[in-house]
Design goal:
The protein has about 325 residues and is mainly alpha-helical. Helices cover about 75% and strands about 0% of the residues. The protein is built from 13 helices and no strands. Helix 3 runs antiparallel to helix 4 and helix 3 runs antiparallel to helix 11. The radius of gyration is 21 Å and the shape is globular.
Length: about 325
């Protein structure tokens, strides 16, 4: 029996190694096929200029405390500019004769601007005190965003595909390669956690302690982190599901860079290293989603990174 189990284990490890090698080979091939020094040089120049303005000039692209309509208009304009810039890089000139492309250029920034700007905290019961509203304002936005984006994408799927559904829900063939990606990323996360701007943002759940003080309970933190992980369902459904799948019908594999630039723009309220790395993460996850037509591997990577950043943030605060 021991020999049989040993052989099974070796067979399993061999199959997983074969899957991982195939996964890496396909992903690297796709990345190289889509690579252009000129295109990526322009994109990186845009990112560098944006980061200088956002982090060193005193001007901030991410709003704080503005009213709904102003925030909606601002974020729509911000996301639209970066998304359009990515499309221009790939197409040089944008043909507005393509109805699907025109629809995506307007609808995608508007949808995500609505998700960011909507005051979901107002949906909390009136009995909830201001202290608790302050602590759970962001979780309310995350959970509200999941519902809002999922419902809107259902209607868009019905409009574009002729049937009800959500983009990217295809089952991933194997999750093992994604665990390998997570292992590769951990050293970068450890380095990032030692940076000063990291401690200003993470752990996100520190707002529970700051707002509730001695009233904070373990379930408050659990609820916060559960809502936080739900936000990545929204992110993956929107970027690696809806945008990659629909834009690929117009641009083919050239859809990846415009979506990654758009994805970078939603991170401008985060630390600079996280914002910059989001572009490259968007390229990698976009490439994987383009191949697999599935969001689940990307969701696993995204959630794992987020929770590890939370963990490192808590450890640094208690050290």
């Amino acid at each position: 029996m021991a020999e049989v189990e040993r052989l099974r284990s070796r067979h399993y490890l061999f199959n997983e190694f074969t899957r991982l090698r195939k996964f890496l080979s396909i992903t690297v091939t796709e990345l190289l096929q889509n690579f252009s020094c000129k295109k990526y040089g322009i994109a990186i120049a845009i990112i560098c200029i944006t980061c200088y303005i956002n982090y060193f000039s005193g001007f901030r692209f991410w709003l704080r405390g503005e009213d709904f309509l102003f925030s909606l208009a601002w974020y729509f304009s911000l996301f639209f500019v970066f998304f359009l810039a990515g499309v221009f890089i790939e197409l040089k000139t944008v043909s507005f004769k393509n109805n699907l492309l025109l629809f995506l250029l307007i609808a995608a920034p508007l949808l995500f601007a609505l998700k960011v700007a909507a005051p979901f905290v107002r949906l909390l019961p009136q009995e909830v005190t201001d202290t608790y509203k302050h602590a759970f304002q962001q979780p309310a936005s995350w959970l509200g965003g999941v519902i809002l984006i999922s419902c809107l994408l259902l209607f868009i799927h019905r409009f574009t595909e002729g049937k009800w559904g959500l983009y990217g829900l295809k089952k991933a063939s194997s999750l093992s390669p994604y665990f390998f990606l997570i292992l590769l990323i951990i050293p970068l996360l450890l380095w990032a956690s030692l940076q000063h701007d990291f401690s200003l943002v993470y752990p996100r759940a520190k707002i529970i302690t700051e707002s509730l003080g001695n009233e904070a309970k373990p379930w408050h933190y659990f609820l916060f982190e559960a809502a936080y992980t739900s936000d990545f369902i929204t992110i993956e459904l929107f970027f690696r599901g809806f945008l990659i799948i629909t834009l690929s019908k117009v641009l083919g594999r050239n859809c990846i860079l415009p979506v990654a630039l758009f994805y970078f723009s939603i991170h401008l309220g985060k630390p600079m290293f996280e914002a910059i790395s989001s572009f490259f993460g968007g390229i990698i996850l976009g490439t994987i989603a383009y191949q697999s037509k599935s969001i689940w591997g990307g969701w696993l990577v995204h959630v794992s990174i987020a929770l590890l950043m939370e963990l490192f943030g808590f450890l640094l605060r208690t050290a």
